[in-house]
Amino acid sequence: MPATATPLYSHDKYWAECFGTAPQLPMSRAEMDALGWDSCDIIIVTGDAYVDHPSFGMAIIGRLLEANGFRVGIIAQPDWQSKDAFEQLGKPNLYFGVAAGNMDSMINRYTADKKVRNDDAYTPGGVGGKRPDRCSLAYSQRCKEAYKDVPVVLGGIEASLRRIAHFDYWQDSVRHSILLDASADILVFGNAERAIVELSHRIARGEPVKDIIDVRGTAFIRRDKPEDWWEIDSTRIDRPGRVDQIVSPYVNTQESKACATEQNEGPKSDAKVLRFVPDARRNRGRTVIRLPSFEKVQNDAVLYAHANRVLHLETNPGNARALVQAHGDRDLWLNPPALPLSTAEMDYVFGMPFTRVPHTAYGDAKIPAYEMIRFSVNIMRGCFGGCTFCSITEHEGRIIQNRSEESILEEIEDIRDKVPGFTGVISDLGGPTANMYRLACKSREIESACRLPSCVYPEVCGNLNTDHSSLTTLYRKARALPGVKKVLIASGLRYDLAVKDPEYVKELVTHHVGGYLKIAPEHTEDGPLDKMMKPGIGAYDEFKEMFERFSKEAGKEQYLIPYFIAAHPGTTNEDMINLALWLKKNNFRADQVQAFYPSPMATATAMYHSGKNPLRKVTYKSDNVVIVKSPEKRRLHKALLRYHDPKNWPMIRDALREMKLAHLIGPGKDKLVPLMQPRGSEHKGSARRKNTAKAHEKRIRKGKVLSQHTGLPPRNES
After folding, report:
1. pTM above 0.90, yes or no
2. Both 98 and 232 in a single domain?
3. Helix, strand, coil percentages, rounded to 5, for the chain
4. pLDDT digits (tens, 9 = 90+) for 442-473
5. HSE (CB half, 13 Å, CA atoms) of 132?
6. N- or C-end of the chain: fewer Cβ atoms within 10 A?
């Protein structure tokens, strides 16, 4: 794969640039007629309502393609019951671009307990049910039904996180790559600007989609075999144990047995690998790693965890190699991720002529997701935190891509001057993480070679620049703009990074907190924190001390709102009890609680499915991870986060008695729940729950030594 890329703004524009910029991308033939278009070059089909705002994927991709000279139409939330809605703009000249929207459609539709949600924040009026389950599949198939000879390009976060054989929480099984199930022609993953622009220009030049196999950030299917590639069996990089030998169909049997010697590929074996070129082993750009096949990972959870581990080791654009995974008689190829956008390219993308409002077809209907972000500004992309339950790294990567200060301030002025209802308050300056703006590895050479999944776990890397001065300066300039009364920070804050720069914390607390600041310790116990790759609770305590001190100095009464996760892999019942005791000791009462949600491709999801830990070498004999799967146990973990709710007390009491922790029942600050139930709060069926609690608590796994809260004896980790 090429190690350099043509800047987004340097491509020769397509001939249709003569039509100029559309006030809003058309959603009907009448709008196309008004623009003088006889057809669209590209039609984007999306599961979200069309909002012409840079926080919405279809708007960014649509405007970017328009800037490259293409005529782009939008089909938003079409009726998927027939092909009719997919023909409303006519036949696209180049391709259909299909995306489920800003969220995976299954996560959008179902709660962590697999209950159907009644609403959809990306739909006018917040109405639920306006998109199908597995949205990308349905839309892609309808596009093919409408115009079978038109290529379909899959994109968006749903496609990105399902680009490989993946565990599907809702079916409790491993599914194919979405590219096969959707019968699409090619898939672009991550923030796909670079890939989609190159792909569009090459299709426009008449190049068949099936022949475009060298674009970074794309996945494709092929039956024939490539030439001049060096293939490495993934089990030689990270041997999971005894594995059936994968016979390479490319091996030259006349040559001596080849071995993967590139850097630290692992021990030699008798498995043969592709070797057509004598020096291929030195050419990373022509090296592909063969993962266990779909059939193998579907039937062997340990191999699934192994494949997930290898995939995550190959996510750094500076050193990632191509991956291949057989699905039956076809091979799924994943090219290395696209190269990060430069600051100039980020400015170009966010500086396009967005109207910043929903399409006029929606009239006065409110779109909740838009209402939440219409006065916010995205200042960067990516996250090097590597939290295992989060999909940001898999989608956006861990190298931070920054906008310039000038670009950000210009957008704030645009909001002030153009967005209806602006009262002078910018609701957020942030991104995936609030305080990673302009933070990066001190050495480009080290950054391009690094394979660590996180720059801040188990501690902040010594090679990471933690100077927040650029962000502090940006905050000061933003709130000094005429017409801006307040700039709030609503994105998630990495407090373990923030404490490295007390001046930043003081600036944040003094000027940019609206009474409450939300942060996410996620847990207090080392067992689950280790599986999350989150810092210990000591980092929270350090930040809390700074927050309270600087709030007092500013003469402000402000509070931290910590978020926690229940039922995450690695969490025992004892861990949740200790967390509940910590919450009670610190007088925290959560109104809403978050249960672990196994999203496709996340490392924690691989733990959930396999019971193994892909953060370390995966073998059949490696330690098992405590997994919370039963509905009863998940309910108990959520109930412990809401220890203060009388409705949860019967369940908690039953569990405490079963675990021989009855000393935590009764009056007093050192107790978790009262002995007696308040009148009127009794739950019917408490006897049934008691029996259920006894049954599932018999299978409690042992873990690390508990903290002082429970007073239990030490126990060994299984």
Report:
1. no
2. no
3. 35, 15, 50
4. 999 999 999 999 999 999 999 999 999 999 99
5. 16
6. C
